[in-house]
Amino acid sequence: MHHLLIASLLSVGQPTAQSSDITIPQTISVQADSLSFKDYFGNYKMQANDQIPKIKIYYKNGSLVALAGDYPETKLSKKQDDEFEEANYGAAVFFIRKDGLVVGIKVVVQGQEMLGDKEI
Q: Are 46 and 114 spatial neighbours (Cβ–Cβ below 8 Å)?
């Protein structure tokens, strides 16, 4: 009985944790990853264009990147679904879908429009 009394007295002085007493900070970080751009990855064969026969689209350092012919790689900034902007040359880049799949690319730069088909 003596042990039960001591245990009861000890438990009276113990704080009780209730769910409302506990605060768990939550940090949500939103960062573009390669999966959010995967539909665009690949090589695009440009139609009737000797200067830029192919454009390669890939993911690098948190951004979607384009490599057009012999030009240096350049970052594409998303404007809206399937539409990107390339700041160095002032180009607008549109990805063309058919039945939900990206099948082509349209690049509008300096008043010219270039079309390309995605290679499978």
A: yes
pLDDT at 3: 43
Judge whether residue 59 has pLDDT over 90: yes
What distance, in Å, lies between the first and last C-alpha atoms of the chain? 81
**Closest by Cα among 37, 36, 55 to 45:** 55
CATH number for the domain spanning 46: value is 2.40.128
Residue 42 in any domain: the answer is yes
Beta carbons within 10 angstroms of residue 85's beta carbon: 13
Q: What is the pTM of this model?
A: 0.71
